[in-house]
C-alpha cells in the first residue's frame, strides 16, 4: 500500500502534535517513527492509517495502482500495540478462529501453523487472560505479522518481551516484510534495526517563539 501525506498536521486544542509533514510511504518500505515518550508517535501512526482525522493536510491511499478511500483502509491494515486489548475470555484457539474470520492469514499460513510460529502450542486450550504479558504480546504480534494485510503498524512492538521474544520479533518481521508498507514507532534502536527509513516526529513540531 502507498500512503501520500501532504502538509499533514494534528492538533489537540491549541497544541500542535506535529505539523507540515509531507512524505510518501511506499510498498516495501519500513519506516521507524522516532521520538521520546509523549512526542506523538502513536498519534502519527493512527493518523497515517486513517484511524484519526488530521487537523490539516491530506492523506491519499493506493494499492496496486488503485485509489483507496480512507474508510476502506482498515481491511488492508494489521496493527499491534501493547495497549490494544485481546478477547481474554476466549481460549487461544477460540480467539484465533474469531480473529481470522475478519482478518485472514497470509497465504500458506494455517491456524495450527501460526500457533507453532508463536511458540504457543501448549496454550491452545488456555484462556488468554491466563497468559503472561510476554505471551499476550507475542500473540498480538503474530496476528499482525501473519495477517494478509499490506499495511502493518507496529507500536513499540517489543514491549513486554524478553531478549528471546525480541529476537523472535526481529526474525518474523523480517520474514513477513516483503511488499508491505511498515510503520513502526519506537525509541529503542534495536527494535527498529530492520527499518530502512526514519521519521522523527520532533522534526515536525512547531518551535515556540523566542
Automatic annotation (TrEMBL):
InterPro entries attached here? AAA+_ATPase, ABC_transporter-like_ATP-bd, ABC_transporter-like_CS, ABC_Transporter_VariousFunc, P-loop_NTPase
- SMART domains per UniProt: AAA (SM00382)
SUPFAM superfamilies associated with the record? P-loop containing nucleoside triphosphate hydrolases
Question: Which keywords annotate this record?
Answer: ATP-binding, Nucleotide-binding, Transport
Q: Report which superkingdom the organism of origin falls in.
A: Bacteria
Cite the PROSITE patterns for this sequence: ABC_TRANSPORTER_1, ABC_TRANSPORTER_2
Domain called ABC transporter: residue spans: 3-209
Q: Which PANTHER family match?
A: ABC TRANSPORTER ATP-BINDING PROTEIN ALBC-RELATED
Its name, as the record gives it, is ABC-type multidrug transport system ATPase subunit
Instruction: Identify the species of origin.
Output: Hymenobacter caeli
Amino acid at each position: 500500500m502507498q500512503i501520500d501525506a501532504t502538509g499533514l498536521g494534528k492538533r489537540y486544542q491549541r497544541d500542535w502534535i506535529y505539523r507540515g509533514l509531507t512524505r510518501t510511504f511506499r510498498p516495501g518500505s519500513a519506516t521507524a517513527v522516532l521520538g521520546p515518550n509523549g512526542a506523538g508517535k502513536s498519534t502519527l501512526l493512527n493518523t497515517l492509517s486513517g484511524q484519526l482525522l488530521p487537523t490539516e493536510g491530506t492523506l491519499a491511499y493506493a494499492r496496486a495502482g488503485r485509489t483507496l478511500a480512507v474508510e476502506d483502509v482498515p481491511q488492508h491494515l494489521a496493527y499491534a500495540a501493547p495497549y490494544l486489548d485481546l478477547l481474554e475470555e476466549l481460549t487461544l484457539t477460540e480467539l484465533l478462529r474469531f480473529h481470522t474470520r475478519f482478518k485472514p492469514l497470509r497465504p500458506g499460513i494455517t491456524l495450527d501453523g501460526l500457533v507453532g510460529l508463536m511458540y504457543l502450542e501448549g496454550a491452545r486450550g488456555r484462556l488468554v487472560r491466563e497468559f503472561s504479558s510476554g505471551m499476550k504480546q507475542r500473540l498480538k504480534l503474530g496476528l499482525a505479522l501473519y495477517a494478509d494485510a499490506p499495511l502493518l503498524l507496529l507500536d513499540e512492538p517489543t514491549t513486554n518481551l524478553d531478549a528471546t521474544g525480541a529476537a523472535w520479533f526481529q526474525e518474523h518481521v523480517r520474514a513477513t516484510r516483503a511488499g508491505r508498507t511498515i510503520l513502526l514507532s519506537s525509541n529503542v534502536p534495536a527494535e527498529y534495526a530492520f527499518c530502512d527509513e526514519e521519521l522523527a516526529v520532533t522534526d515536525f513540531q512547531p518551535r515556540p517563539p523566542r
